[in-house]
Amino acid sequence: MNTQIILDYLECLSENNNREWYHAHKAEYKEANALFEALVQELMLRIGKFDGSILPREAKELTFKLVRDTRFSNDKSPYNPAFRAHIGPQGKLPVPVGYYLMIKPGGQSFIGGGLFADVFKEATSMVRDYIAANGGEWEKILHAPDFQKAFTLRGTALKNVPAGYDREHPQAEYLKYKSWYLEYPFPDDTVADGERFLEEAVRLFRLMKPFHDFLNRALEGFQMPVR
């Protein structure tokens, strides 16, 4: 799979981030997008071998549009020059948590997982409660040697342990978080080699699975807000 084509298209879009260029190069977009969807489909099938909760889906159900919402942004460029997808039990919905990837040239590509969205207060409370009740299991997941080698837990956090939780709790630091997620960066040369990228992404996503399982048990019963 020649994923270099994806990087080349996104680089050109980044340099010509306007509607005129985008519409004049629709053929290049279609080629790059078809390749990205094929990559996502293959990734989903390989992840499905160790996490059946994400099957079956069509790749186009899992990808995000290039068009940006510029209404509340100082940056008025119409497109985000990145191909993105979320492979989760509910497709691209952020809860239950799943496997995220973004391809963006200039060394900005990464894969990730976990709860990125700290806007869902109920989801944050559910995860905090579950960590408070299952701290030993949480620590075991985070401190597994292969997991630790690959990932550092990230997320927005409060300065203090929130009200209602024990400040002396053994996992007090993790209770300050409002989101809990992982990211792993990919250089362009790895992304450009489709098979190499797939193998490495699948290896890392496999390491993420216990982390996802823990969060999704915590989030059982969570309802996405209705717009």
Can you offer a commentary on this structure?
- The chain is built from 9 helices and 4 strands; from the N terminus they run αααβββααααβαα.
- With 227 residues, the protein is α+β, with helices and mostly antiparallel strands.
- The protein has a 4-stranded antiparallel beta sheet.
- A hairpin with a 5-residue loop joins strand 2 (99-103) and strand 3.
- Helix 1 crosses helix 3 (26-48) and helix 3 (26-48) packs across helix 9.
- The longest helix has 25 residues, at 194-218.
- The mean pLDDT is 95.
Major beta sheet summary: 4 strands, antiparallel
Order of helices and strands: HHHEEEHHHHEHH
Query: Helicity, in percent?
Result: 40-55%
Weakly predicted, low-confidence segments: none
User: Would you report the number of β strands?
Assistant: 4
Strand order within the widest sheet? 1-2-3-4
Global mean pLDDT: 95
Rg over C-alpha atoms, rounded to the nearest angstrom: 19 Å
Structural class: alpha+beta
Estimate what percentage of residues fall within beta strands.
Answer: 5-15%
Distance between the termini: 38 Å
Count the DSSP helices. 9
Please state the overall shape, judged from the principal axes of the Cα atoms: globular
Annotate the secondary structure layout.
Elements: H1 4-15, H2 19-24, H3 26-48, E1 83-87, E2 99-103, E3 109-115, H4 121-133, H5 135-142, H6 145-150, H7 172-175, E4 180-186, H8 188-192, H9 194-218
Antiparallel strand pairs: 1-2, 2-3, 3-4
Helix pairs in contact: 1-3, 3-9
